[in-house]
Backbone:
């Protein structure tokens, strides 16, 4: 049964999709393809809806990419070669080099060399950007199977036709930006994004002729841009200067050895006829256009007569070819820690005897692991309980019986909070000091007052103590009432058991200030 692979290339101005049919004997053909102008469709979501409505494109998964401008690219050297160690170390190594927190990004890498440790080319993207792309495609029935960096898939296919010793530069000229991929010997050395595209040429044409952007775009597509060739060339040369500065900085960093030996072009913005000529003069190297259909040896349905344009469709076709390509590439569904679970396969030719023995061994090991985990957890729980008991008795020495240390801690803390709240309510009006002052000044000396407790509860203050007699306790109550600072005072007293002295309790309520 043939396998169908869908590649979706999401550009700024155009959405491209290619459905590849891979036969059982290794043959491939382009079964269907579609390109949708995003602005004409009413936005990216409407463009995806149009793809969704094409029955032949209703396949369960797709391969796509995200624009290079969304990524941070870094070259990293690590002193070891183990892939697991690399994955564990990279987030810490890159943390100070990327503009996002390490925990909020996805990281994937390509290995350039492992002669001494590992030389890596890394790509980093905010996790939210990948989640957004996955969600967007999923809304229209397209489940992303791989997510690569834009243009990398085209570069991987181009590598099959470029000599290993050639330092090559692939420029994917889109509507608003250009992605440059430097590669040599089957290895991607660097990826950069430049703020130049087909719209830059259209703006130059629009400004030179004093016409609208849409009219200038139409003239450009008809090949009527010669009247503004000088203005267009000036816009292109600004891009060339930025490109030369980038190559110079890469050379100074030791990432490339010199100028590119060859330059290739792809993307709709590269259809402007003089761009290749001016690039060739600038870098004194041959500049060619990429044709992935020729590189892969396949033909599109209907060919160019049906509107197929390789410069525009290269990206989507290369993404569809990605599962059968051997070249390098990123995958932010797997490299970002989202590796999919492989589909379950049943082999009816298995040896049931050995399978049963293996299953029994697995269950036995699982049971042993569960038992060990239980005892480890129980030991840890007992240790924590002992530590909690010790901490409780250390902070609350009056606790002699510990049943549930955590609950007893919570009860003591709640009591402390209530007491603190009560204290704050009283002391805010200096009520405690007032009561103490009144007792010391108003109680007659003959009462021989001895205070034993002072209890606070909001605006209530209970005073407990001893006095020389019941009459002395009554005189204290009357003296406090005479101050006018108390809304109510209740007195209770009883014999202290020592001569004529009595124990008394005054329950007072502070009067609210007017």
Residues:
């Amino acid at each position: 049964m043939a396998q169908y692979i869908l590649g979706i290339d999401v550009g700024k101005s155009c959405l491209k999709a290619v459905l590849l049919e891979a036969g059982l004997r290794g043959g491939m053909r382009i079964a269907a393809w579609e390109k949708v102008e995003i602005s004409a469709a009413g936005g990216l979501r409407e463009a995806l809806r149009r793809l969704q409505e094409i029955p032949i494109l209703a396949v369960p998964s797709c391969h796509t990419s995200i624009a290079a401008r969304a990524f941070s690219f870094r070259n990293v050297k690590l002193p070891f070669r183990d892939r697991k160690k690399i994955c564990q170390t990279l987030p810490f190594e890159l943390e100070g080099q990327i503009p996002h927190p390490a925990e909020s990004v996805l990281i994937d890498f390509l290995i350039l060399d492992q002669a001494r440790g590992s030389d890596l080319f890394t790509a980093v993207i905010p996790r939210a950007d990948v989640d957004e792309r996955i969600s967007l495609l999923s809304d229209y029935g397209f489940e992303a199977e791989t997510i690569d960096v834009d243009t990398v898939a085209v570069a991987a296919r181009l590598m099959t036709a470029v000599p290993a010793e050639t330092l090559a530069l692939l420029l994917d000229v889109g509507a608003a930006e250009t992605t440059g991929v430097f590669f040599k010997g089957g290895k991607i050395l660097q990826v950069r994004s430049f703020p130049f595209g087909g719209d830059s040429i259209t703006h130059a044409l629009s400004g030179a002729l004093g016409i609208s952007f849409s009219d200038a775009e139409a003239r450009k597509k008809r090949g009527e841009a010669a009247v503004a060739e000088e203005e267009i060339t000036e816009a292109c040369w600004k891009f060339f200067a930025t490109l030369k500065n980038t190559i110079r900085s890469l050379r100074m960093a030791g990432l490339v050895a010199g100028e590119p030996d060859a330059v290739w072009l792809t993307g709709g913005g590269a259809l402007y006829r003089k761009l290749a000529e001016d690039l060739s003069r600038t870098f004194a190297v041959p500049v060619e256009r990429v044709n992935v259909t020729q590189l892969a040896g396949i033909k599109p349905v209907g060919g160019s007569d049906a509107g197929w344009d390789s410069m525009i469709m290269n990206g989507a076709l290369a993404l569809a070819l990605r599962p059968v390509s051997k070249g390098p590439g990123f995958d932010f569904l797997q490299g970002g820690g989202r590796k999919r679970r492989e589909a379950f396969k049943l082999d009816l030719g298995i040896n049931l005897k050995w399978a049963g023995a293996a299953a029994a061994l697995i269950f036995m090991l699982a049971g042993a692991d569960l038992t060990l985990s239980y005892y480890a957890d129980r030991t840890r729980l007992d240790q924590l309980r002992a530590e909690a008991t010790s901490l409780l008795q250390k902070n609350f020495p009056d606790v002699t019986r510990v049943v549930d240390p955590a609950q007893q801690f919570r009860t003591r803390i709640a009591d402390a909070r209530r007491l603190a709240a009560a204290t704050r309510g009283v002391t805010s009006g200096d009520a405690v000091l007032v009561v103490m002052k009144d007792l010391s000044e108003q109680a007659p000396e003959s009462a021989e007052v001895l205070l034993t407790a002072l209890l606070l509860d909001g605006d209530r203050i209970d005073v407990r103590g001893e006095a020389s007699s019941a009459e002395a306790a009554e005189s204290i109550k009357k003296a406090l009432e005479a101050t006018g600072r108390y809304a109510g005072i209740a007195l209770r007293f009883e014999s202290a058991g020592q001569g004529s002295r009595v124990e008394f309790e005054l329950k007072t309520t502070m009067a609210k200030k007017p």
